[in-house]
Amino acid sequence: MGEKPIIVRTEVPNYQLPDNSLFKLNLPPENTQPTPAVAAIDNLPLVETDPQFTQLKKWLGTDYMQQQLRWDHHNMHKRLGDGFYEQRLIREQVINLTGKRYLPGHQNDEEQFKALMNAGVRARHAFNLAPGIALSAEQMAHLTEDMVWLVNATVTLPDGRRQTVLVPQVYVRTQAGSLDGSGALLSGSQVNLQLSGDLLNQGRIIGQDIHVLAENIRNQGGLLQGHQVDLQARTDMVQRGGAIGADKSLTIGAGHNIDIASTTRRGENQAGNNRFSATYVDNVARVYVQGTDGKLHLRAGKDIDMSAAQLMSQGKNSEIQLAAGRDIQSGTVKTAQGEHLEWGRDNTLTHTESGETGTDINSAGQVSLRAGRDVNLRATGITAGKTLQVAAGREVAVVAGEQQQTHDEYLKVKGSNSWVSSTTTTTREQYDRTQAVSSTLSGDTVNIQSGKDTTVQGSNVVGTQDVTIKAGNNLTITTAEETNHRFTQKEEKKSGLMGTGGVGFTIGSSKLKQSNDSDALLQKGSTVGSSDGHVTLHAGEQASLHGSEIIAGKDIDIEAKEVAVTAAKNSHTELSKTEQKQSGLTLALSGAVGSAVNTAVQTANEAKDTKDSRLQALKGTQATLSGVQGYQAWQLSQADAAKADAINQAGGDAQKPTDTIGLQLSYGSQSAKSETRTEQTQSQGSSLNAGQDIRIRATGDNTVADSGNIRVSLLANATVAFMNPHRSINFLSHSPR
Q1: In a domain, 561, yes or no
Q2: Which of 212, 254, 595, 730 lies most in the core, judged by the most C-beta atoms within 10 Å?
Q3: Average pLDDT of 648-663?
């Protein structure tokens, strides 16, 4: 069977005006019927997003496209929405048309929006598209890329008047594996599925109210969307890519596990000996609610697993709740790209990059994660406009992911200085780097509690108001390791006729080899802080702050049986080597005059090679003086020779000077080696910085003698009160060496 033909699809954008407090309407004067001329008076979009929600960020909008097309906005209709609102419309259309979060080749909203607008600009010139007019079927059939175009739409204002606005409309070329016009669609005001077996959705299920009960639910790149959505699996609920969304409430429940993961795709290409490969996220798994009071709830009898997923609630009073009987795991998917290039016989380049893409949980309202056993968050971003709560019966771990780069480049250049000499230069550069990809938990207030241990490694826990972390056993705020290994080598071989630096030459060969090998180990610290409130850290056993920082606009309170505030260590080692060999027959000037001439020539060459004008002038002066010294040596030699002649003519016996100038011919070889090793260790201290007071209390263990110690490496910027005067307080000093 032949391949399925490409189909260009589009849908009329949703231009119904929003009615929640997230947006405001820029309405025209009530006593004037809206016209393009009136709309031009006020250049603001009809729908404008609350700047507090967008954090004053300027969002890319179709004003960019109008500038590219050089349209006069005074003669155009008002835009329906600002950049934030337009990106929301684009996102909804892409999901509805393809069932995927992003079109192929894109991984974020703004980059995708800009690419679609640029494609629209190209289509405008290719097909002579008219502003505000949707594409005809014939024009759609000739599209060669996905694009967006501004079309006219008439909206009804709250007072009943009607106004024409410009709305971005998406046109997509259906790709293999995407939903198309022939894909499965289940829709209705009420969608109620009661299944004894499994539900597999690879199409679209759309309705006002959606209720699904099945043994297992699997959303494989499909779309489920409604005003209220309730999905209940007696065993497992699995989502791979695709989107599940609701306006008011979205509830997903599973008797056993909920597993939400984005999908990746691997691509390879080879041309001769050149190879390219990439593994990238191609379909983001997305779960969201959009209403002002939207509720997003995930409940699993056993585990909730998320990998590179996106959970979002946009409304100010919305909430996201995750509850698991056992564990909540927020993991990552691995992405990579690599290339291997060869050119010529001896030149190669191999470069690879790999990384981890984590889960993002973003709510304008509250976020809550509760697990009967553990909560593990790796390279995860959680943002709450209000309260962020994390609770686990056993352990909470907030840790960094990792990204890595490797590079290996070998170059060999052969050249001839002239017909009597040649030079070959080879260079090698290698490096291997690993960097931490931090997790960040951010909320207006943040509260983390664990029955046993809590660990924050190379990550951030921050709030505007109070931040509280409590652990039944140990609380550890520590670093993540980053490494950097680098090796460079340059070897230069010369053969044939070579200069000596002065007036002379050598016939033979020389080799100069220089290398540098370095290793660095760096510690990426954690940050726990509150900009306007208190930071409270409480541990049943030990509270440890290692190479990290605590920051509070008000007080810092730390309490545990044992408290340790210690420094991490960064290290750097470097080994430099130089090897030099030379052999051959050398002919050079000798004698007093010859030595001065050699010096003058060498200094003149140094002056020519330097880039600093003052040093160049100084070397030029030195060369001139060396030349003068040579001339003076020649004059002195001539005077001594004349004196010797006069003595000899008078019958005396005088020797004429013989070392004025001459030629020296020598043959031999020489070699030299040098090696320099450097080792450095530098402390990265922990810090506690508070706008008001710092209180540290080590209660000790009544069953263990001399327990309850406080070990401190650095405290700063506040009054410090140690609440256990009868215990030992050890101040640790660290200095680089």
Answers
A1: no
A2: 254
A3: 57
